[in-house]
Amino acid sequence: MTLPTKLADYFKGGRCAMSFELFPPKTDEGMALLEKNVERLQAFHPNFFTCTYGAGGSTQSRTLDVVEKVKAITGLPVASHLTCVGSTVDQLRDYLKEAKRRGADHIVALRGDPPKGSETFQAVEGGLRYANELVELIRADFGQHFGIAVAGYPEVHQEAPDPQTDLDNLKRKVDAGADVVVTQLFYENSDFYRFRDDCVKAGINVPIVPGILPVTNYKQACRIAAMCKARIPDEMAAAMNESDDADFQFNVGVDHARRQTIDLIENDVPGIHYYVLNKSSAAAQMLDGLSLGADA
């Protein structure tokens, strides 16, 4: 099988592409568990995996360990996240060189969140302020070697003063050379469809890929929604609050994500990116019997 040379190629050809996002475990035991879950997730024929890293740029080396490990296990392309947080331009270049050396295929280019306790992002001296500058750096130094994904926000980035400003920022990232937009998680598909339409009107002509998190309990849903400013539908909240039973809440959350997935496929999304939190049970139950990802 010949792998695509560009990230956007995964989202062509009529079949809904699929990717899974991982994070670097803190322990050797966590890495062993991650390997088992990756093997299970591979059975659903994803097109690629991505791996994030800790706040403030921590665990960067561990991220590249995961990149190498997942490539060895699956033979699939893997993307490394990269943020501007806490790094000079020279440090960003060094990371990209090491990512290339260790086999990363793509980069998820992000500005990154403000440090804990701060509401605003401050670039370090000699660093970058915006994700579009990071995309420009990658393209200037590495040409088309890396595919580049950037983030979009169906419910508007929490720091943006209004939706139009948020769209303008996204267009700058795409114009700088991004191949695809992967969205922040959301629970209402109508928010994604409105965002997709707004992107088209704004002249953003790369694939817009929805990001889905199958939540497995109500406390988790509330915590993540608060962090991401994602709205929890009343119907979902009411259903999860019917019982404190862990299995009940797991099934409600997974069923909601499955219904989101089916509706997205029916509305011709080019792919779906799943935030699986290094686990496979929820994804396996959600995806059972559905037709996504690379051809088996």
Automatic annotation (TrEMBL):
Entry cofactors: FAD
Entry keyword set: Amino-acid biosynthesis, FAD, Flavoprotein, Methionine biosynthesis, NAD, Oxidoreductase
Name listed for the protein in its UniProt record: Methylenetetrahydrofolate reductase
Recorded superkingdom: Bacteria
Enzyme nomenclature, EC number: 1.5.1.54
Family statement: Belongs to the methylenetetrahydrofolate reductase family.
GO biological process: methionine biosynthetic process; tetrahydrofolate interconversion
Molecular-function annotations in GO: FAD binding; methylenetetrahydrofolate reductase (NADH) activity
This protein's encoding gene: metF
GO CC field: cytosol
Taxonomic path: Bacteria, Pseudomonadati, Planctomycetota, Planctomycetia, Pirellulales
Pathway: One-carbon metabolism; tetrahydrofolate interconversion; Amino-acid biosynthesis; L-methionine biosynthesis via de novo pathway
The keyword Methyltransferase belongs to this UniProt entry's keyword annotation: no
Keyword Flavoprotein: yes
Any coiled-coil regions, as ranges: none
Catalyzed reactions: (6S)-5-methyl-5,6,7,8-tetrahydrofolate + NAD(+) = (6R)-5,10-methylene-5,6,7,8-tetrahydrofolate + NADH + H(+)
